[in-house]
Amino acid sequence: MARKKTVKKTARKTVKKTARKAVKTATSKSVAKKKTAVRKKGLGRPRIAGSAELDMEFKGDFGARQIFQFLDVQTFKELEEFSPQEITDRVITPLVQAVERIRKQLAMANRHLSGDQKFARTFQAELSKVMKR
C-alpha cells in the first residue's frame, strides 16, 4: 500500500519551492538590471579598430571623405575626438564667410543676390559713412 502524504510534508515542499522561485526571480531581476545598465553605458565592443583608416571604410562616400580631409583626420580614433556640432561648425563657417564676402562685393558693385536687396542698401549706407570720415 502506498503511504499517505501528510499535510506537513507537502506544505514544507511548497514553501521550499516558493522560496527557491523567489530567490531565482530576485536574482534574475537584479542580473537583468545590471545587464541593461551595462548596455546603456556603452555600445559594446567596437567592430572596427580605432587605428583603422577612414578612407577604407568610406570608399564610396566622397562627401564624407572631403570632410575627413578638411578636418585633417585619417583614423577613427582621430575622428571620434570631434562632436557632430563641432564638425558642422568647422565645415560651415568658411562657407558662411565666403557668402558674406560675395554679398559685400556685389553690394559695392550696386548688385545683390535674389531677395538680398535690403542687405545691399544697408551695406552701401555703412560703406558711405566710413568713406566720409
Overall SS class: mainly alpha
* Overall pLDDT: 83
Radius of gyration, CA atoms, in whole angstroms: 35 Å
N- to C-terminal distance? 123 Å
> What about the largest sheet?
none
Strand tally: 0
- The helicity comes to over 70%
- Count of helical stretches: 6
- The low-confidence parts are none
Shape: elongated
What fraction strand?
Answer: under 5%
SSE string = HHHHHH
Would you give an account of this structure?
Helices cover 71% and strands 0% of the residues. The mean pLDDT is 83. It has 2 domains: 1-44; 54-132, no CATH class. By secondary structure, the chain is mainly α.
What does this entry show, briefly?
By secondary structure, the chain is mainly α. 71% of the residues lie in helices and 0% in strands.
Quickly list its features.
single chain; 133 residues; mainly alpha; 71% helix
Q: Can you lay out the helices and strands and say which pair or pack?
A:
Layout: H1 7-41, H2 54-57, H3 62-71, H4 76-79, H5 84-108, H6 117-132
